[in-house]
Amino acid sequence: MKIKNYVLGKWEEGDGIEIIHHHSITGNEISTCSSKGLDYNSIMNYGRTVGGPALRKMTFQERGRMLKALALHLISIKKKFYGLSAATGATKIDSWIDIEGGIGNLFANASLRRQFPDLPYYVDGSAAPLSKEGTFIGHHIMVPKKGVAVHINAFNFPIWGMLEKIAVNLMAGVPAVVKPSEFTSYLTELMVKEIIASAILPKGALQLVAGKGRGILEHVTNQDVVTFTGSAKTGKLLKALPNIIEESVAFNLEADSLNACVLGTDAVPGTEEFDLFMKEVQKEITVKTGQKCTAVRRILVPENLIEDVEKALIGRLKKTTIGDPSIEGVRMGALASIEQVSRVKENVELLMSDQKVIYGSMENYELVGGNKDKGAFFPSILFRNDDPFQHTLVHEVEAFGPVSTLIPYKDMNEAIELVEMGKGSLVTSIVTANDKLATEFVTEAAHVNGRMLVLNARCAKESTGHGSPMPLLTHGGPGRAGGGEEMGGKRGIMHYLQRTSIQGHPQTITAITKQFQVGADQPEAQPHVFRKHFEELEIGQTVFTHKHTVTTADIVNFANVSGDNFYAHMDETSLDGTIFEERVAHGYFVLSKAAGLFVDPAKGPVLLNYGIDECRFTKPVYAGSTVGVRFTVKEKIDQEKKDEDDIAKGIVKFLVDVFDETGETVALATILTMVRKIDQS
User: Fold this and answer.
1) Domains in the chain, please, with CATH?
2) Fewer Cβ neighbours under 10 Å: the N or C end of the chain?
3) Which residues are the active-site residues?
């Protein structure tokens, strides 16, 4: 069987054979692949001219719903992928991480739509005043780049590696060309087949180059984004390509990472934390056969506990059965390909020249099922390095397999120094129940880490563990780890958007941003905004309320009702040394009274008020002050129906501007309301 490329809207075989795929357990040939002969210039232009415009027409809400639909479809057919995943040497749990973990990225990024407007672009931050009279302001918008995301992925997660990246660029409105590792592209191809067959994505949104993809980066431009996951050596070479430099192409690199896991000095044998540490380290050595960019390569242990840890860890590794994952009791499968065996072996031999092996043998190990001669099996290897400041290869060489090193440390300062010697990591963990120790470690070691886990008994039950990057948090790391950020929640999406400052009159900026800007027109709403459905409301429409003169009785009554008897409201004799000239009205009274002024109480399209944002009390209000409200439609956000019986509605943000008899603002707030739509379909 020959794996095909999906380019220019069709499935296409490459010329000849670039790679022969072998089953990692049996060694049998399963497929071949090639991308020779593909027209990369046309592929890139197809993404830019077909996929890009289609995605950019969609709003963030629509893109989010698209991702959710895709995730629901893929999770419904997830069993299709497990059988072929086994060919990569994966156990069931390994496959679960790759398949369902990958689909989980689609769900997570789809949920981010709630943090974006119902627009194709994003309005970032707040307006900047640029003039005395307020007729000239600045703002920032973020628009999708008019290019293609080129994802060059690693062999270890052929599904997760693709889905975690395309979820981000698709949410941003940018199409993708995915170049998975040719060694495991057969599994990526299967996933892409199902995605394309679903017809959920617009044409041109996703293309697949299943072979080596030589020459694709010669056709990127300044509007494209390149991501690379793999070795630091290869990543640096790609990043330095003339076309990448000349076009100033955004390049996200996730590379080697010598991640550490630190046992806190308090986590002695007999504590829950000691047991958690042993379990976590064993898992990081054996899950995915150690073929994870986040796997623990350096195990840092207080020197007085090194013997206890060595004994306990070796005991756990001895119980890890290696072989065919389809056989009951097998806990560790094979490396992803036979090519990886030689690479891991080479690096293990290099490490052996600088430190001693305390467990495991590359030649002598037991295998349950599988083919030891033809399969891609590799045993767990545990090193010990008692002098990590002199024997430093452990901080420089990553054997990308079930390989790790025990390292003793004298005190926390030394542990931090050892972590730093990795020159930048994706993740470092510390297992401790001592929050003071955890604080010291995290704050001093965070500068060389993209993510840090503090594990103890209190969070262990729900912890995702050392090796699990979460889509809504940063996945990447400084220095050796590449300096990139593949996910990162909302931040990740913004990597595919161009942030542009816009300047002009508040009315113009309001029109562009679809958010009311102070100084823009405020036409009086007729009828009252609470009488209008979601579709009928327009940005800037304003209710100008009647006014109310605040009395001392108001202040006293509010104190009695609320229980807020703060001295500034109730005791005129205690105001010396404060900013107040006399008893001041409660800020929340002012806001409550504002609501009494702007609310039209009769039943209508407004369903409920469910929150307040950005509430500020900007000027004291005393008895005798007269307040009124400018109540303005600030922003509208569409909302999909949860089910057929749900009410069709949208979110409307109203600006509450409370002013006094001088016209000066005394309080500002944004209230969020749910407003019924006319169209209930």
Assistant:
1) 2-120+144-254 (3.40.605.10), 259-468 (3.40.309.10), 522-676 (3.10.129.10)
2) C
3) 254, 293
